[in-house]
Amino acid sequence: MPAMTLAETAIEIKKWAKKNRLFGNQPIHLDVDDALSPGVCVSAKHETVFGNTDHNMISTSHVERQNLNMRMGMRRFTRLTNAFSKKIENHCHALALYFVFYNFARIHKTLRTSPAQAAGITDELLSMEDIVNMIEAANPPKKRGRYKKKAA
Q1: Closest CA to 79 of 36, 24, 22
Q2: pTM for the predicted model, two decimal places
Q3: CA atoms lying within 13 Å on the CB side of residue 82
Q4: Beta-bridge partner residues of 136
Q5: In 24-126, where do the E strands start and end?
Q6: By 3-state DSSP, what share of the chain in percent is helix, strand and coil, each rounded to 5?
Q7: Which has more pLDDT, 40 or 131?
Q8: Radius of gyration of the chain from Cα atoms?
Protein backbone atom coordinates (compact mmCIF):
# COMPACT_ATOMS: atom_id res chain seq x y z
CA MET A 1 0.00 0.00 0.00
CA PRO A 2 1.83 3.17 -1.11
CA ALA A 3 1.33 5.89 1.45
CA MET A 4 2.08 9.59 1.37
CA THR A 5 3.87 11.20 4.28
CA LEU A 6 2.34 14.14 6.08
CA ALA A 7 4.85 16.48 4.42
CA GLU A 8 3.96 15.16 0.96
CA THR A 9 0.27 15.63 1.71
CA ALA A 10 0.86 19.19 2.94
CA ILE A 11 2.72 20.04 -0.26
CA GLU A 12 -0.36 19.01 -2.25
CA ILE A 13 -2.35 21.84 -0.63
CA LYS A 14 -1.76 24.75 -2.99
CA LYS A 15 -4.23 27.25 -1.61
CA TRP A 16 -6.01 27.78 1.65
CA ALA A 17 -8.52 30.35 2.79
CA LYS A 18 -10.84 30.77 5.71
CA LYS A 19 -14.21 32.34 6.31
CA ASN A 20 -14.91 34.03 9.61
CA ARG A 21 -18.52 34.71 10.50
CA LEU A 22 -19.71 37.17 13.10
CA PHE A 23 -23.00 36.29 14.78
CA GLY A 24 -25.19 38.84 16.52
CA ASN A 25 -26.82 38.42 19.89
CA GLN A 26 -30.34 37.11 19.93
CA PRO A 27 -32.97 38.71 22.09
CA ILE A 28 -33.94 36.60 25.09
CA HIS A 29 -36.94 34.44 24.28
CA LEU A 30 -39.15 32.46 26.56
CA ASP A 31 -39.60 29.79 23.90
CA VAL A 32 -37.06 26.95 24.27
CA ASP A 33 -36.86 26.30 20.52
CA ASP A 34 -35.81 29.90 19.82
CA ALA A 35 -33.25 29.88 22.65
CA LEU A 36 -31.41 26.88 21.15
CA SER A 37 -31.42 28.12 17.55
CA PRO A 38 -28.22 29.72 16.19
CA GLY A 39 -27.71 33.45 16.11
CA VAL A 40 -28.13 35.63 13.05
CA CYS A 41 -25.01 36.03 10.88
CA VAL A 42 -24.16 39.74 10.90
CA SER A 43 -21.09 39.63 8.66
CA ALA A 44 -18.67 37.25 6.97
CA LYS A 45 -15.01 37.97 6.33
CA HIS A 46 -13.00 36.00 3.76
CA GLU A 47 -9.28 35.74 4.33
CA THR A 48 -6.60 34.12 2.15
CA VAL A 49 -4.05 32.22 4.25
CA PHE A 50 -1.82 31.33 1.29
CA GLY A 51 -2.12 30.75 -2.43
CA ASN A 52 -4.34 32.41 -5.00
CA THR A 53 -7.91 31.85 -3.77
CA ASP A 54 -11.19 32.94 -5.31
CA HIS A 55 -13.14 34.59 -2.49
CA ASN A 56 -16.44 33.68 -4.16
CA MET A 57 -15.54 29.99 -3.79
CA ILE A 58 -14.65 30.07 -0.08
CA SER A 59 -17.16 27.95 1.79
CA THR A 60 -17.52 26.15 5.08
CA SER A 61 -19.76 23.45 3.61
CA HIS A 62 -17.10 20.72 3.67
CA VAL A 63 -16.16 21.40 7.29
CA GLU A 64 -19.79 21.61 8.38
CA ARG A 65 -20.54 18.30 6.64
CA GLN A 66 -17.55 16.67 8.34
CA ASN A 67 -18.75 17.96 11.71
CA LEU A 68 -22.22 16.51 11.04
CA ASN A 69 -20.70 13.17 10.04
CA MET A 70 -18.70 13.15 13.26
CA ARG A 71 -21.76 13.88 15.41
CA MET A 72 -23.88 11.29 13.63
CA GLY A 73 -21.15 8.64 13.54
CA MET A 74 -19.85 8.98 17.08
CA ARG A 75 -22.18 9.29 20.06
CA ARG A 76 -19.54 11.11 22.09
CA PHE A 77 -20.14 14.24 20.01
CA THR A 78 -23.87 14.47 20.57
CA ARG A 79 -25.29 16.38 23.48
CA LEU A 80 -26.66 14.71 26.60
CA THR A 81 -25.03 11.33 26.08
CA ASN A 82 -23.19 8.94 28.32
CA ALA A 83 -20.82 7.81 25.56
CA PHE A 84 -17.95 10.01 26.67
CA SER A 85 -14.27 9.43 27.36
CA LYS A 86 -12.99 9.95 30.86
CA LYS A 87 -9.44 10.35 29.57
CA ILE A 88 -8.40 12.64 26.73
CA GLU A 89 -6.09 9.88 25.47
CA ASN A 90 -9.04 7.52 24.97
CA HIS A 91 -10.96 10.29 23.22
CA CYS A 92 -8.05 10.84 20.81
CA HIS A 93 -7.82 7.11 20.11
CA ALA A 94 -11.54 6.96 19.33
CA LEU A 95 -11.17 9.92 16.96
CA ALA A 96 -8.19 8.34 15.21
CA LEU A 97 -10.06 5.06 14.77
CA TYR A 98 -13.08 6.88 13.34
CA PHE A 99 -10.95 8.87 10.87
CA VAL A 100 -9.07 5.78 9.67
CA PHE A 101 -12.37 3.94 9.15
CA TYR A 102 -14.02 6.93 7.46
CA ASN A 103 -11.14 7.62 5.07
CA PHE A 104 -9.69 4.17 4.41
CA ALA A 105 -12.38 1.51 5.02
CA ARG A 106 -15.72 3.11 4.13
CA ILE A 107 -16.94 3.35 0.56
CA HIS A 108 -18.53 6.76 0.00
CA LYS A 109 -21.59 6.90 -2.23
CA THR A 110 -20.52 9.90 -4.30
CA LEU A 111 -16.92 8.73 -4.76
CA ARG A 112 -17.81 5.02 -5.16
CA THR A 113 -14.57 4.35 -3.30
CA SER A 114 -12.83 5.49 -0.12
CA PRO A 115 -11.49 9.06 0.12
CA ALA A 116 -7.96 7.69 0.53
CA GLN A 117 -8.28 5.79 -2.76
CA ALA A 118 -9.79 8.80 -4.51
CA ALA A 119 -6.88 10.98 -3.31
CA GLY A 120 -4.32 8.40 -4.46
CA ILE A 121 -2.98 7.75 -0.95
CA THR A 122 -3.73 4.03 -1.17
CA ASP A 123 -4.82 1.66 -3.89
CA GLU A 124 -6.86 -0.76 -1.76
CA LEU A 125 -9.87 -0.58 0.52
CA LEU A 126 -8.99 -1.56 4.08
CA SER A 127 -11.15 -3.90 6.13
CA MET A 128 -11.71 -3.59 9.86
CA GLU A 129 -9.44 -6.61 10.25
CA ASP A 130 -6.65 -4.68 8.46
CA ILE A 131 -7.14 -1.74 10.82
CA VAL A 132 -7.04 -3.98 13.90
CA ASN A 133 -3.87 -5.66 12.60
CA MET A 134 -2.22 -2.24 12.10
CA ILE A 135 -3.14 -1.23 15.65
CA GLU A 136 -1.79 -4.48 17.10
CA ALA A 137 1.42 -4.18 15.05
CA ALA A 138 1.97 -0.61 16.31
CA ASN A 139 1.20 -1.54 19.93
CA PRO A 140 2.15 -5.16 20.58
CA PRO A 141 0.67 -6.58 23.78
CA LYS A 142 2.98 -6.45 26.78
CA LYS A 143 4.25 -9.75 28.10
CA ARG A 144 2.56 -10.51 31.38
CA GLY A 145 4.37 -11.95 34.35
CA ARG A 146 3.49 -15.13 36.13
CA TYR A 147 0.33 -15.24 38.16
CA LYS A 148 1.05 -15.15 41.87
CA LYS A 149 -1.49 -16.36 44.38
CA LYS A 150 -2.21 -14.05 47.28
CA ALA A 151 -1.08 -15.30 50.64
CA ALA A 152 -4.06 -16.17 52.82
Answers
A1: 36
A2: 0.59
A3: 0
A4: none
A5: 41-50
A6: 40, 15, 45
A7: 131
A8: 22
